[in-house]
Write a structure and sequence with these properties.
Residues 5-57 form the Zinc finger PHD-type domain. The chain is 16% helix and 10% strand. The protein is α+β, with helices and mostly antiparallel strands and 61 residues long. A two-stranded antiparallel ribbon has the order 1-2. The termini are far apart. The protein binds zinc ion (ZN) (2 copies). One zinc ion (ZN) binds next to strand 2.
């Protein structure tokens, strides 16, 4: 099964408002990240594709 469940909550992802972690490839609702909807709406594709989730292992240098 494709990884289309949010890693931050038990709900399924819609493909619009979601982010994928560059490190672990987990997908999150924007609402389940620390990024606000406002910030998400002005994120460039580059920023979007370099996003890293808040899981401890992904935050390691
Ligand atoms: Zn979620
Ligand atoms: Zn991650």
């Amino acid at each position: 099964m494709a990884n289309f469940e949010c890693a931050g909550c038990p709900n399924a992802l819609d493909n619009t408002m979601s982010l994928q972690c560059r490190q672990c490839n987990d997908n999150y609702h924007v609402a389940c990240t620390r990024i606000s909807i406002e910030d998400f709406s002005v994120m460039s594709p580059e920023m979007n594709s370099s996003w890293i989730c808040d899981v401890y292992r992904c935050r390691q240098p």
